[in-house]
Amino acid sequence: MVHNKYYNVSSGHKFNIANTMVSLITVFKAQTLLAEHVRRSRIDSGLTQQGLAERSGVRLPTLRKFEQKGLISLESFLKLAMVLGLLENIVNATTPVTTQFTSIDEVINADKHKKPVRQKGWRT
What we know:
CATH superfamily of the domain at 27-93: lambda repressor-like DNA-binding domains
CATH class of the domain at 27-93: Mainly Alpha
Distance between the termini: 57 Å
Helix content: 40-55%
CATH architecture of the domain at 27-93: Orthogonal Bundle
Structural class: mainly alpha
Order of helices and strands: EEHHHHHH
Low-confidence stretches: 1-12
Radius of gyration: 24 Å
Largest sheet: 2 strands, antiparallel
Mean pLDDT: 82
CATH topology of the domain at 27-93: 434 Repressor (Amino-terminal Domain)
């Protein structure tokens, strides 16, 4: 358990973990999954690697490297996504999520101010 909001990593750098999300997926796994999703979308769209490369303006060796290793520039990735109709989904997936509460105290206090929900019906 970390008692301090700063964590000292092996490089000696400190960073604030109070606002850091913990991910259960690694960057490598994310790259691999994105490459698989693009490949599946390409195939489902009936496009060859050559066809997608030509339509997107991404060089064929770049596309091949991406599908095999998950390595690509952001610009090239977005060009591929645009041709495959995935661009809007990617932009929407990265929209920041606003949270209503910033601390447990706010959650507790908000609960105190709620009106109780009537459990029984009216008598006639």
